[in-house]
Design brief:
27% helix, 6-stranded mixed sheet, Metallo-beta-lactamase, Chain A, binds fe (iii) ion, alpha/beta, 8 helices
Length: 266
């Protein structure tokens, strides 16, 4: 398999390009709007055909490039069916597969950081792409987009820690210069949800994090619900009318809970 790990330094986000070296079909996981030109150039240089722009979830810290990638390269956008992204092409369920040439990614529903989080397992290569569900020695916060610490704990234990120990874990971010981990390492050394931790300890810890309001959430979430194709304008003080924008998109998915979904009280 052809594989590239790509990094956006502003948001410490990893994107992953996977391709079948024979058919040249490719998948880009968790693209970043500001890196669109870099990634299109790479895909063209490697003579790849982008089949899917796949999201692990609706990101709150950066805007996706998936909509632009679809316009430029004709790929399909894949996202969890539990995420209200009405214009995505594929609304993924646990057990679904993304096929690209002779290769495939299996969809593992790993909700908890957000309800619409999935991980992608490339079983043949022994790689799993966990988004923000499982980070290296950490995990994503659980206080918006129907996040739920108990759910996140079960997702990691049942869907990720049940994989063979040598499977390599590729996270959605790292803020400390690390690139990759393994199931074995996270079981042993993850301070939040390693095998020595109980669900009660985990839930208590997640409830006490007192994290700051995410810097880009008011821009990123409404934009990402539209595959990154519409970025609401910020007012001069930096705020944006995100709740209205989110409500409009979510209503297209038949949902009227935009305010709660954005994470009241964070
Ligand atoms: Fe996230």
């Amino acid at each position: 398999m052809l594989f590239r790990q790509l990094f956006d330094p502003e948001t410490s986000t990893f994107s992953y390009l996977l391709a079948d070296p024979v058919s040249r079909e490719a998948v880009l996981i968790d693209s970043v709007f500001e890196q669109l030109e870099r990634d299109v150039k790479l895909i063209e240089e490697l003579d790849l055909k982008l089949t899917f722009a796949a999201e692990t979830h609706v990101h709150a810290d950066h805007v996706t490039a998936s909509g632009r990638l679809r316009e430029r390269l004709g790929c399909q956008i894949a996202v969890s069916d539990a995420a209200p992204v009405p214009d995505a092409d594929l609304h993924l369920k646990d057990g679904d597969q993304l096929r690209f040439g002779a290769l495939r990614l299996e969809v593992l529903a790993t909700p908890g950081h957000t309800k619409g989080c999935v991980s992608y397992l490339c079983r043949d290569a022994g790689m799993v792409f966990t988004g923000d569900a499982l980070l290296i020695r950490g995990c994503g916060r659980t206080d918006f987009q129907e996040g739920d610490a108990t759910m996140l704990f079960s997702s990691i234990r049942e869907k990720i820690f049940s994989l063979p120990k040598e499977v390599t874990v590729y996270p959605g971010h790292d803020y400390h210069g690390r690139l990759v981990s393994t199931v074995d390492e996270e079981e042993r050394f993850n301070p939040r949800m390693g095998l020595e931790k109980s669900v009660e300890e985990f839930v208590a810890l997640m409830g006490e994090l007192n994290l700051a309001y995410p810097k880009k959430i008011d821009i990123a979430v409404p934009a990402n619900l539209l595959c990154g194709l519409s970025v609401p304008l910020a007012s001069p003080d930096g705020a944006s009318d995100s709740s209205g924008a989110v409500a409009v998109v979510m209503e297209k998915s038949g949902r009227q809970d935009a305010e709660i979904w954005m994470g009241v009280g964070i």
